[in-house]
From TrEMBL:
<dbReference type="Pfam" id="PF09820">
    <property type="entry name" value="AAA-ATPase_like"/>
</dbReference>
<dbReference type="Pfam" id="PF08011">
    <property type="entry name" value="PDDEXK_9"/>
</dbReference>
<feature type="domain" description="AAA-ATPase-like">
    <location>
        <begin position="5"/>
        <end position="226"/>
    </location>
</feature>
<dbReference type="InterPro" id="IPR027417">
    <property type="entry name" value="P-loop_NTPase"/>
</dbReference>
<dbReference type="InterPro" id="IPR012547">
    <property type="entry name" value="PDDEXK_9"/>
</dbReference>
<dbReference type="InterPro" id="IPR018631">
    <property type="entry name" value="AAA-ATPase-like_dom"/>
</dbReference>
<protein>
    <recommendedName>
        <fullName>AAA-ATPase-like domain-containing protein</fullName>
    </recommendedName>
</protein>
Amino acid sequence: MKRLPIGQSDFKTIIEEDMYFVDKSLLIKEVIESGNVLLITRPRRFGKTLSQSMMKYFFDITQNNDYLFKNLKIYKEKNIIEKHLNKHPVIYITFKDLKSNNLKKMHDLLAMELSRLYIKHEYVLKVLNKREKAVFNKIMDREALDADYENCIRSLSEYMERYYGKKVIILIDEYDTPIQQAYLHGYYDEIISLIGNLFGMALKDNVYLEKAVLTGITRVSKESIFTGVNNLKVSTVLNELFNDKYGLTKEEVEETLKYYELEYEEDEVIDWYNGYNFGGVEIYNPFSIINLVDEKKIGPYWMNTSGNYLIRKLIKEGTVNIKDSIEKLLNGEKIESKINETMVYGDLHINSNESIWTLFLFSGYLKWIKETKEGYRRYTLAIPNKEVRMFYEDTVLLMFEEENIQLDNILINLINGHIEEFKEDFQKLTMNTLSYFDVSGEEPERFYHGLILGMSVGLKEKYIIKSNRETGLGRADVILIPKDKTDKGIIIEFKKFYKNEKTLLNSAQNGLKQINEKRYEEEIKNYGINDIIKVSIAFDKKEVEIVSNLDKEEENNERKDLEYELKLKSIETAKKLKEMGLTKEQIIQATGLSIEEINILYK
């Protein structure tokens, strides 16, 4: 059997070493027949780098790679083979390693990558004049001005066209990596001008350009990167262009598993790795399928790779709407959002729902099901498969683990009827962790909705969690229905304090009143559970007031305990009076005991 290409994205190595290769070579034909400047966006590890590598070896005029393609589908396209196989000068550059937490290092990494590019094509010095050579050498030595770096890809295309007498093909892999890094580490505005000018000069009105293909996760817009590039053709997960050329189709998955004689449950593979919709084609995650074959067992392979940090950050710091939507997604529901194919990283900072869901969709953490309103770019979205669902669940639990919040422990006192201890623990919790969930300090509800989200994940083994569902005559914030019917059901209502309520206690009492008046307990009772704890939590920033139906029960218990203690004292007094020889009537008058109680005493 052929070796699996795990961790290998160099096309030549895969073919020469006869590794297993899913033939996507007809992508080359589609690229040739498409626009002059192509931008292809797909999630990470869906074959973008391998495809760019394949096209580099196909077009590169400096090589003779006929043997690499003779057994592939593209080789049957004789006209394309004759006109294009190793017939074009190629500029190939990857930005996948441009990752840095500061601007200076990013600038150095970019200069290093451009220096390597120039060193590789040093032969063009033969056709350059003295001034051109001087700048060329400075770029190789990493001593050039920013303006020279910004213009260097365009200049190199001019020099290569001069050298070969043919226009150039430019291939840029993972073009948006430095942009995402800059956003994450706070130097976004500084890097965007440099990157924008680099691409703009290379792609806009470049008379030396035959074709350009850029790949990345998102289409970055409003940052001048593609300003004026009016011949740009874009392929995203939403449109049909190249829709079956990245990732694996169902037929390709079946063929792969059959080749490796792997016995599997089709439904299980579908549940774990299918679900992606690329321009109307059903797509499986290729990275996970390859690792499934290698390990011969189901597992969250794609989720265990790098690249999740930004998504985790957006979930943690998300608004109430974001957290509510993630809860719905985890419950198997769908959400609806406008999707802007031109990604605006700057809008992520203000928690723009549109930008966040766009990033989640293009990054592979959501799938689109249908366009809900044609022409308005509104789509129905859902979690694509079980592997991605596990990522969401793990992310939520990690948020609580980082703050050492044990959701089970929060509820133990409540379930046991120790309401005062529960109040104390919950108030400490909000004081210590509110800032963690509410980074902006402007929306304290994030903490409480984050808590609900955590409950929906962390307590799912013990409870059926329902949040903001129709129950009785209204909508409860969270309902916990125990799977063990001997346990108690729990209703929690969160109330934001408003000044007209005068006090936080009034606000909490209003919440409890709402639970009763709206009959939120009806859904729990439908499960055959009648022992229900009702809690109203009112908050004003970090201040919290809690009331519940257990408050009244505790008062009754305390009253009963006091009455019992008084009764015991009266009985002890009666005993002494009896020993002193007082009559029953005198003892009743002195102790307040009844004649029945006195008779028992005499017996």
